[in-house]
From TrEMBL:
SUPFAM superfamilies: GST C-terminal domain-like, Thioredoxin-like. The keyword Disulfide bond does not apply. Belongs to the GST superfamily. The keyword Magnesium does not apply. PROSITE patterns: GST_CTER, GST_NTER. Keywords: Plasmid. This is Glutathione-dependent disulfide-bond oxidoreductase. Signal peptide: none annotated.
């Protein structure tokens, strides 16, 4: 019997495809139920989860706070995407695309909603004047890499990660296709980081903050359990950069916010103040 799939004339939704995320996926958008979001005291309200896209934003917020920007203090609420929290009416009002992260800024004349993780980084970097150079040419290069990440990471996460780690069976064709692309991306980053401390040179920017949660986590063995499979040691510049960034206090703090899995010293579902993070990090084994 052939195992080749012959697409029907018109595709119809089969909710029993067995994949890890099958229960939440539907071919329609919009709210599935009525529920308001929680709201804390700070001007910035983040609704997120510590996936790489979520980590980008909490890392930037923690970096801003450590840089002395008090106005960057925030409340962060965990959105359980496996429990369909992203389909509540409250969440959909902040992000009609029903994906974390989503941010509300109540410090402006009218409340501002911001969605798409790359845009949230740009919004916060511009608002507070940090981690984005003011020089036009340098800013443009940072944005080149920020937009590169936003376009490329779905091949790593939705492509490689999905088929290597989450799909109900190991299928050779998509794993080959997306491993090829992931390794091409790692090779690109390795060349870009040759002779540079950070993605665009000597300055740590939102390009690093966007790229590290994806490619840094993968090469450090913190995503998809794929470090050996991808032969990450063959990208020495990426490895050096990933380890350097992992040690930054803002990264150590931001990566655990809205994390609802893992060890007790790296898990903080909701964050309302710096001390919430301090008490979790105090449990890190010495
Ligand atoms: N392009 C979006 C992607 C966000 C995204 O894919 N979020 C995932 C978690 S990493 C999500 O919320 N998935 C829930 C769903 O698909 O229902 C961004 O960068 O913000």
């Amino acid at each position: 019997m052939s195992t080749t799939y012959n697409p029907p004339k018109v595709w119809t939704w089969d909710d029993e495809n067995g994949g890890q995320w099958a229960s939440i996926n539907r071919p329609t958008s919009g709210a599935r139920f009525e529920r308001d979001l929680s709201k804390g005291e700070h001007a910035l309200q983040l609704y997120s989860l510590a996936t790489p896209n979520g980590q980008k934003v909490t890392i930037l917020l923690e970096e801003l706070l450590l840089a002395g920007v008090k106005e960057a203090d925030y409340d962060a609420y965990a959105i359980s995407i496996s429990d369909s929290d992203q389909f509540s009416s409250g969440f959909v009002a902040v992000n009609p695309n029903s994906k974390i992260p989503a941010l509300m800024d109540y410090s402006e004349d009218e409340p501002v909603r911001v969605f798409e993780s790359g845009h949230i980084l740009l919004y916060l970097a511009e608002k507070f004047g940090h981690f984005l150079p003011s020089n036009h040419a340098e800013k443009t290069e940072v944005l080149n890499w920020l937009f590169w990440l936003q376009g490329s990471a779905p091949y790593l996460g939705g492509g490689f990660g999905h088929f290597y780690a989450y799909a109900p069976e190991k299928f050779e064709y998509p794993i080959n296709r997306f491993t090829m692309e992931t390794k091409r991306q790692l090779d690109l980053l390795d060349k870009q980081l040759e002779g540079k401390t950070y993605i665009v040179g000597d300055e740590y920017t939102i390009a690093d903050i966007a790229i590290w949660p994806w490619y840094g986590n993968v090469v450090l063995g913190l995503a998809y359990n794929a470090a050996e499979f991808l032969d990450v040691e063959s990208y020495p510049n990426v490895m050096r950069w990933a380890k350097l960034i992992a040690k930054r206090p803002g990264v150590e703090r931001g990566r655990i916010v809205n994390r609802t899995w893992g060890e007790e010293w790296e898990m903080l579902a909701d964050r309302h103040s710096a001390s919430d993070i301090d008490s979790v990090l105090a449990k890190v084994p010495k």
